[in-house]
Amino acid sequence: LLAATPVDTGRARAGWSVDTRHGSFVPNAGSYAYAPQTPLVPKNAPVIVIYNNVEYITRLNAGHSQQAPAMFVETAVDEVMGGLRA
Fold first, then answer.
1. 45: part of which helix (H) or strand (E)?
2. What's this model's pTM, rounded to 2 decimal places?
């Protein structure tokens, strides 16, 4: 995900954070979070939340930057999830 994030000032790339408190954390309003639907995750498994509170991350993910395709967040997460299925 870090490598997929477009870089101008580096702020968006540096904005990614991870929370592993069993899903008890909710990112700030306006942040970007994506949770793939997958049968791999057991019902009682801890939830890992990857989020970015940089105010323009949603625009970047929508294709605002020519450095990365639209939906680069979903693509990166889905690639990782696909690797876990193998």
1. none
2. 0.68
